[in-house]
Amino acid sequence: MSDRGSRDPRRLDFYDRSVHVVARELVGCRLRHGSAAGRIVETESYHEEEPACHAYIGLTARTQVLFGPPGHAYVYRSYGIHALFNVVVEGEGVGAAVLIRALEPVEGVELMEARRGRRARKDLCSGPGKLTQALGIGLESNGSPLLAGAIAIEPPRRDERSVELVAGRRIGITKAAELPWRFCDAASACVSRPWPAAMQGHSPALSGHRAA
Hints:
Elements: H1 19-26, E1 30-33, E2 36-47, E3 73-78, E4 82-88, E5 96-107, H2 109-116, H3 121-124, H4 128-135, E6 151-154, E7 165-168, E8 182-185
Antiparallel strand pairs: 1-2, 1-6, 2-5, 2-8, 3-4, 4-5, 7-8
Helix pairs in contact: 2-4
């Protein structure tokens, strides 16, 4: 495994790197499922070395995808309600994944609105459970390959604004909550609440680009 892998998420070696490197570089990429897609504006990294990661307990039926080859989806049910989408990274045998926490909707927005039952664009995908509902991603996608499956991750578009990357503590967890492994685009209003301290004083907005 090397941190000098490809910066193109359509290549396998993009994922065969440190979870923290991948988590940072996924911000600004585009997550797509069918006709709906969103620009990734928030991620969190999880590694087997710390107790907030599911892989911390070792290899089980639930965590086998985490310990599998990089470049696959790890989708699990949170609190019996929400499906959360993660990207498996690092080498096979290492339990590590990037949680996609928030998207800025860019394609299939009307479909996302119908699935979510709301029209406020900044709230459609401003959380890990919200974005899977908006994109129609369920538990059936667990273990699916990202390079040849229904879910795809695409590189940033040249016509989109650059990322203003900031880091902060992960949220929604009680274990290892002090680790600064949350990465956000400070320019986006779609980052989930509470915003990291580094975003205070910013005036995040929605991108002007909106596809049908």
